Amino acid sequence: MEQPESDDLEAQRDRLMYGLRAYGANYTEFTRRFANWLGLHSTDAAALTEILYAEDTGTPLSPARLSERVSLSSGATTILLNRLEKAGHIVRTRENTDRRVVTLRSSPGIRPRAVEFFGPYSARMTAEMSRFTPEELRRFEDFIGRLRGGMDSLLDNEYRPPGP
Fold this sequence. Notes:
5% strand, Arc Repressor Mutant, subunit A, globular, mainly alpha, 71% helix
């Protein structure tokens, strides 16, 4: 008797996993189109998006942290940052008391362009989330946090790139 319920649960989990993968693919496509819109390579746009997001959350990135976020070597990240700086999209600042620490910031001109591009996406996501109660959103936030924690753990422990 329990088999149909078990099958339904497995099918529901499969649909959720498919939806999460599709959402991730769509977000990657948004970043690719942002790159085209700005006339950048997709890796440069992904890095710029990471810098903008980090600023939005109040935790600006260092070059080393950006390197981790976009999966590039420190040398490749330096070359990427040089391109973004030359194009006028970012600035490197020294805000820390330790003047060796570099902080990455978006340039004043890029934020309005990012808002113009991502504004419709943000508005649509806000509208979709407004359909749910605060409790439903808390549960979904917990769910996504647990999935992300599981993936972070796998990436940190079992899927680590080979060391030097």
